[in-house]
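User: Predict the full complex structure for these chains.
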Amino acid sequence: MNLEFIKPDEIEARSFAIIEEKLKYKNIPENQKLILKRVIHTTADFDYIENLKFSEHAVEIALQALKNGASIITDTNMALSGIHKKSLHALGGKAYCFMADSDVAEQAKARGITRAMASMEKACDLKGDFIFAIGNAPTALYQLSELIDAKKINPKLIIAVPVGFVNVIESKNLIMQKKINYITAQGNKGGSSVAVAICNALLYQICRMA
Amino acid sequence: MNLEFIKPDEIEARSFAIIEEKLKYKNIPENQKLILKRVIHTTADFDYIENLKFSEHAVEIALQALKNGASIITDTNMALSGIHKKSLHALGGKAYCFMADSDVAEQAKARGITRAMASMEKACDLKGDFIFAIGNAPTALYQLSELIDAKKINPKLIIAVPVGFVNVIESKNLIMQKKINYITAQGNKGGSSVAVAICNALLYQICRMA
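Assistant: Here is the predicted structure of the two-chain assembly.
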């Protein structure tokens, strides 16, 4: 056996210590650093030191919303699967993804919009406070922007981390220009895993300290 | 609206064209390139041009196995969620993740091993041919190595893409040293999204051409 056997909890602790070492001379607020560290833990990609951007007080507002039972709406079933639902449910929130819903598919087809756009519209019918975790579709961010302008929705936080090369940067810039709380990964990078890492870093700040 | 509206299929095509442009002077076999392109599409990370490594004939053997109805076993429920099950089922295969199974949790606790290790053992009880898609746990790769040596399992392919800083590189090297078909991401990078991208790139090579 060439591998040193280490228990999972200890692997995570060692991994975070390695990441912490790389961040020690960076001037990053502690609650943002907890999120950045989990994103790097998930991707092994230190580019996020420069890429990850937070609106003012984004983390504090998001933590308060989650403590008050805010739910999380995401645009991929992979992200839905990865969000730590035990923590979210303990706080009174739920996790939703409408992408595979038949009514969303019908709306999208009938109106020539993306399912991600129809999913964001469907979210307007829900009651309560919400955080959006967008890890795939730039069109979801575009639609959220329109729905916010039309005062149909007022999210507590938008996690704006689509990945890719087409409309990705533009959609993130659109969110960053609004008076809205956001956490985003500037540039092309992001994805479902990054969206999940940000959600869970927020949840663990509350639930692991409780 | 600052965003040009493009349909999802077209977004994928444009995205792949952008990636293709960056790869055009690289000498990469076509069937490997299809996998590399989907990994970059998923991560927006061109490091995979250098990182992604294939054993000889890995793609051909994996495609033949999938055509013959091989199943896919993964070590995260996020990856299970992302694998294109419609294509896999059409070929006669299934997708499995045993990480949340109560018997796996019990075995792991009783014997002081990780759930990922217990999951790999559970896979030995299944009939048929298998591809393993490991996007999280280095211990899953270590356990697969032991099970292969003990002739308890004979996977058609191991997708060895755990991510992180503790035992990740070592576990990938262990797989690369064996006489086994593998696709791996050398170094620290990888993850559930990368595992899914590789699985789906294989499935799409069969199902989108059929």
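The radius of gyration of chain A is 17 Å.
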